[in-house]
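Beta-galactosidase, Streptomyces vinaceusdrappus. Tokens?
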Amino acid sequence: MLSLHAHDPSAPLAGHLPLGSPAGTPSPVTVDSQSLSRDGRRWIPVMGEFHFSRCPAAEWREELLKIKAGGVDLLGTYLFWNQHENDRGTYRFDGDLDVRGFVTLCAELDLAVAVRIGPWSHGECRNGGFPDWLEDVDCAPRTDDPAYLALVAPYYRRISHELRGLFHEDGGPIVAVQVENELYDQPEHLATLRRMAEEAGIRAPLWTATGWGAADIPAGTLLPLYGGYPEAFWEDAHDGWARDMRRHYFFTPIRDDHAIGADLRSSAPTGTGPDARRYPYATCELGGGMAIAYHRRPLVPAADITSLALTKLGSGSVWQGYYLYHGCSQRVDLKEPNQESHDTGYPNDLPTVTYDFQAPLGEYGQVRPAFHALRRQHLFLHAYGAELARMPLHLPDREPASLDDRSTLRWAVRSAGDQGFLFVNNHQPHETLPDHDGVRFGVTLPSGRTVAVPAQPVRIPSGAHFVWPIGLDLGAGLRLEWAGAEPVTRLEVDGLPLTVLAATDGVPATLALAADVEIQGPARVDTAEGTTLVTVTEPGTSALLTLTGPAGRARVLVLSPEHALRLNRMRVFGQDRLVLSDDVVFADGDRLRLHIASDAPSVALLPAPASLVGSGVGEAVADGVFTRWPLARAPRLPQPVLETVREQAVAAPARTGGSHDRASAPREADWDKAAVFRLTVPASALDGDGEVLLRLRCTGDAARAYLDGRLVADHFWYGPDWEIGLRRFADAVVRHGLEIRVLPRDPAARVYVDASVRPRFDAAVTRAAVESAALVAVPRVSLTAEGEGRV
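Tokens:
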């Protein structure tokens, strides 16, 4: 049996940080050394990064609704100085740069906001967001040089003007402000920036700075936030996994990651970083994916993202912040290209336009598998975060010996008193971890009680990553002693508390309850050592159990892993409901709305209204305790006409550049020698208001899309099909069509792609082509309800 001995946590430090809402603020936000609180309740924020200025304003509302549907309750966003003051003294906060409009929209949708105001922001932006004109000023940027501060001050004042009335103490959504980014050796400057921002009128209960790289954060001034990625485009183009990323798949009290931004530092960190005893473990950059640079093009599957997020949570995180959560596009309307590049002194060449990041929501709002898988974790946090936040990390008696240990099972417990959550991660990228047979966990809680989980040894499959509850409150005086199944959410249905669990793939779903609890429902019930053991042999929509104890009744629904990935919990049609769908689904006022991308779309509700009304809604059918309505499939669109304009192409010669002498992207002149293809898009394909994706399968090193001679999208090939959302270009693309240019690759260029796609990349040495082009509809469906049906 694997063993772990937890201990009582020490009392958190409080009142030692100059953070938190002023006295008398409604729904105050506070912070101590252990966790955050909002409106008197401990709060684990789920923060998703989405850059308003890199997405058309017309799309903001729809995309924010999708972000919220993924379980995000705190929206993180950068301001890039070079976008708002591209010409010195001329500020732009209009159109897609309208930060006030964006934050106001967040408030309307009940999303809190964290603004990252810079002035240096990075975000793979040109000069880190510094305007080009700053290079002509005699000053020392990112220091307390008065000449530099004199330029920052009016910029901060203008930001404050734009955000007036939107700060938390005014009843607005802004709860956090980050100054600078990845500045690790100028603590006095960080303190100065906070002071300047406050003097300008910028206010927030939480002031933050990035803490990685052993950053020297001014004590008692800023809350350090950390990160961790599954891969790294900023590594060299060596074969295999970026080694420093391995640590993120182990449970550890170590918060720092010296690898993030390492290629922008002139020397290795020598400090110890912030004192972890004074601050809660908070993150702002857990990898929602990874960007693609020309020289290094990682492929990031959903499990790499979700296992990392779960491991950070199991390691003690009380603020789950994802970068990026929603992909976006670099601006192309400025005087100069706006991406990080060798030409601006960076080690890496990034695409001119795309900043998709393989994020849970893509550059054009595409819903990726990571979106659904992370939502399941976020449902857990919204339901149980207040309890989890007070629980510190406890590590097992036997831990992995090193980052190369692939044989020791990775697990940990967060617990306090007589309750806890057991976390397991048996997944890491690139290297398959083994199955573990005969596993049983022995956990001694801080209260002194020892729990053996589960009742019989089980196999933990390779790739599994999960959390199991210990001492979970089910309501009505009932308690789940432990479960070999994952807690997902809880709500009240038909006057009874309902707890939703999800079976762990490959492991029997077993629940342990007190001996005096009666069980009704589809399960095998046994008794052993004064405990009622309940085994659900067929988890799913019918696996509803009614538990009756001395004090009352409660229900438990045990879903299959597949159903849990489709689960949403939302308030719609006047009450809290569970909603199952393969598609993204969200509440929008009194409507239930979906973006349809699945082959057989449907929506199931519990409790269910008497009927759903909307275009394409079929007849309701029972699906266990849910009621399911089939929906019309996305229409098959007329397809584009693909013509070859020029088949012959010449590869851009292998070049290197930047501070690390890495492979450079093709130059503008190289695109004159690319293979050229023309796409004609039928006007009828863009009827309606939903997205239309152009899905291109290419062979080549790099590709670009032009609309009437204007670059609108680009792609460094890394395996998946290239997708371009056409809705934002609808009128022009029908009038002009698209020109696609594809370059083959010079084999001398040192470029990394994932081993699984390397054979197709090798073919690009001799061929540059658009192999196929297809239009895919993503229609929007809006549903209303009539009456209440059965529960």
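The chain has ten helices and 50 strands.
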